[in-house]
Write a structure and sequence with these properties.
Layout: E1 3-8, H1 18-25, E2 49-61, E3 87-88, H2 91-97, E4 105-108, E5 119-130, E6 138-149, H3 153-161, E7 166-173, E8 176-178, E9 184-185, H4 193-197, E10 202-204, E11 210-212, E12 215-217, E13 227-235, E14 244-256, H5 270-277
Parallel strand pairs: 3-12, 4-13
Antiparallel strand pairs: 1-7, 2-6, 2-14, 4-5, 5-6, 7-13, 8-9, 8-12, 10-11
Amino acid sequence: MAFPKTANAIVREPVLSPHDWENAWGGLAFHIPLSPEAKGFWKTASSAQSKYLLSHCTIMSSVATEEEPYDFLIRPASAHLVNNNDDAWSNDVMKMSHRTFVGAFNFVEHFQNSKYAKGHIIDSILRKIHLTQDPRDSVYFVDILVATDLSHKKLAADIRTGKVKYLSMGCVTDLVICSFCGQRVADAGSYCHHLQFSKGAFLPDDDGVPRRIAELCGHKSLPGGGVRFVEASWVQTPAFPGAVKRSIVSEEWIGPATQYTRQVSASGEEFAKAASENDDYQGLNVGEYLLSMDDGRNLR
């Protein structure tokens, strides 16, 4: 049985062009050049095209863990990077799984119905962040390139102005591991008492070191880390202080049209209509908390 997980995140907003993205990260998502200077190829079964708003966003962070056999213990320096749902991903799992973002859907508020997708994730990269001078405390931020179909005019306008800027990931994980006792949980009925009653708390380990109790998603021993990212949503309330739109990369990038990203008529239940059109975005009241270690000196 797999566990579905969702979470979110803010960061500062540098100026970034398509050419800058290619120079910095080197990847051509779907082999499609993002700027005229780039070379690549694009093969598709259809000649239909759409115009997309490309946004460079930070979506999530890993946490640093101890060495085996205690690789379930989260190092104190990165305990604050556990999201507010008390979910976390080790460095190893993040390195193995972050590319599954590529091709995933872009939704609003985790309304995970492909009919109401707003676009896709077309690239994903890791940025190594040094939390302390100890290299064991380094973590990875995941940056994604989000393509939002411009047929969703209200959403695109709100992304441009910053009215909508926070994000949240959605993933499926094969198991979760207690970050205090190391118990592996394959279904919700087998949680240890730490995950049942103490998630989010700090308990001292045998050496007296306070350890954050969270659900570590996946493990490096599993194929792909046991985690698959299936979507990234625009949200109003982030759970992780770090996941935000950083910049607009392209105002009208031309990419392949799909049946999933075009504006559709929301006939049916009112919630589906609200999720699809959502012209009544609430003001975002989350403080502009910026992680002090996330700056240009730490990008590599």
